[in-house]
Every structure is written in structure tokens, then in C-alpha cells.
Design brief:
A hairpin with an 8-residue loop joins strand 4 and strand 5. The protein starts with a strand and ends in a 7-residue tail after the last helix. With 265 residues, it is mainly α. It has a 3-stranded mixed beta sheet with strand order 1-4-5, with no helix packed on it. Helix 4 packs across helix 5, helix 5 packs across helix 8 and helix 6 packs antiparallel against helix 7. It has one domain.
């Protein structure tokens, strides 16, 4: 049995300014996206430019934060925030939704696609292989903050989270998510995107992969105390992942059926 090391959530204090580990993980995530995006551009994996990449990241940050926060408000605590709408802007109190962030990114990509005379799926195929590394960094931030812990387990790597005060060994589900939704998904989508694919298929593999991994990991993650399960034994995270899987399947097979075979590289 392991014990969570209980990191100080503040990584660096400079006078009145506190720099939190979670914020640094966001910064690390976007930096990894930028580095891998440069690699894809420099190695001829796309005809997009570095300026396009910088635009995608800049507006993507806005989409992630705005969409992630609004998604949390709408999917998880709508009644609470209706009563206290000003608290929607209290980002320092926590509360972000991946699925909301994804919707936010899709919205900004739609605007960028129109501006750059591209399609949404063209931009999606470019950015999809890099996103899992950002997700891995975010899940590491969840682990450092000792949040989104797992359900009780008797497995030898079960971890006690002392701040809960119950002494129970739990799944370190944050690390499961970092591994599956981050590292493994990155390997799968990056491998898939190494060859020319019909437009939309790389985006589809990301959607399906994340949806499947998130759905599975949710079985080890403690449901939010204020919400619990929402449909039988299913959590909100699982319900929100099902449309991702369905949309990914639709895009993948539609792209395969409507586009001519691509030449071999």
C-alpha cells in the first residue's frame, strides 16, 4: 500500500504571487503541443505553417479555459452556479471539464478554419496527435493536487490519500488517466498519423481513443460526491464519453467511404 506524498499545490511563491503546480502543468501541456507541432511541420506532416500552429495554440488556450469552465458549470453543477453566477469566474476554486474544453477547442477551430480557408477536420487532424501529451500533463497536475482520486481497492498499488481522513487505499486513477488518455493515446494517434489518412480519420481516432479510455478509467475513479452516478452505474464522465466514441466512429467510416484512396507514401 502506498501513501500519496501530499505535494504543496503552490510550486513557487514570489511575494504575493502564487504559482501553482496545476497552472504549470497547463503551461507544460501547451509547450508540448507547440514542440510536437513544430516537429510535424518541419518534417512535412502538414502544409500548415508555424504561424498557423501559434494561432491554434493561442486560441486553443482560450477554448480550453472557457469551454472547460462552462462545461463544468453546465454538466456538473448547473443549479449551484445559477444561484451564484459570479462564481463561474472563480477559476482559482477549481472545476474544469475535459469535454467542455473539447467543445471550446472545436468552436475556436471552426473560427480559425473559416479564417484560414480550411476545414475543421483538416485542423483537427493536425492538432489531434499532440493533444494527449497536454492531457497527460493535466492528469499529473490532478495527482499533485490529490484530486479526482480513485475508488477503494485492495490491489498492491492502492494509494492512501491522507487528506480524505478515511485511511482507505484507493486507485491512483489520476495516474491511470495520465497513462491511458495521455501516453498510450499519444502513441496510438501519433502512430496512426504517421501515414497519409483520409481527412478526419486522425481526429476520429483521437475521439474514439479518448472516449474509450476515459469510459474504462471511470470505473476506478470515485464519482463526484455532489453528483454520484447519473444513469445506473454510469458516471457523468462516462455519459459524456459515449457521444465522443459515436462521433469518432461516424467521422472515421464516413471519411473512408467518401474520399478516394490515398497514394502510398
Amino acid at each position: 500500500m502506498l501513501v500519496h506524498p501530499q505535494f504543496d499545490p503552490v510550486a513557487l511563491q514570489i511575494g504575493p504571487v502564487s504559482i501553482h503546480w496545476y497552472g504549470l502543468m497547463y503551461l507544460a501541456g501547451f509547450t508540448l503541443v507547440w514542440l510536437t507541432g513544430r516537429w510535424r511541420i518541419n518534417n512535412g506532416k502538414t502544409d500548415l505553417t508555424l504561424r498557423d500552429l501559434e494561432d491554434i495554440i493561442f486560441y486553443g488556450v482560450i477554448g480550453v479555459i472557457a469551454g472547460g469552465r462552462l462545461g463544468y458549470v453546465l454538466f456538473y453543477k448547473p443549479l449551484e452556479y445559477v444561484q451564484n453566477p459570479i462564481e463561474i469566474f472563480y477559476l482559482w476554486q477549481g472545476g474544469m471539464s475535459f469535454h467542455g474544453g473539447l467543445i471550446g477547442v472545436i468552436c475556436v477551430l471552426l473560427l480559425l478554419a473559416h479564417q484560414k480557408k480550411r476545414t475543421l477536420l483538416e485542423l483537427g487532424d493536425f492538432i489531434a496527435p499532440m493533444i494527449p501529451l497536454g492531457l497527460a500533463a493535466g492528469r499529473l497536475g490532478n495527482f499533485i493536487n490529490a484530486e479526482l482520486w480513485g475508488r477503494p481497492t485492495d490491489l498492491p498499488w492502492g494509494m492512501v490519500f491522507p487528506m480524505l481522513g478515511d485511511g482507505l487505499a484507493r486507485h491512483p486513477s489520476q495516474l491511470y488517466e495520465m497513462a491511458l488518455e495521455g501516453i498510450v493515446l499519444f502513441a496510438v494517434v501519433w502512430w496512426f498519423a504517421r501515414k497519409p489518412r483520409a481527412t478526419g480519420q486522425t481526429s476520429a481516432v483521437f475521439l474514439m481513443g479518448y472516449g474509450i479510455f476515459r469510459f474504462l478509467v471511470e470505473y476506478t475513479r470515485e464519482p463526484d460526491a455532489f453528483l454520484g452516478t447519473v444513469l445506473g452505474s454510469l458516471t457523468m464522465g462516462q455519459l459524456l464519453s459515449l457521444p465522443m466514441i459515436a462521433l469518432g466512429l461516424f467521422i472515421y467510416f464516413r471519411a473512408a467511404s467518401t474520399q478516394p484512396p490515398l497514394p502510398k507514401p
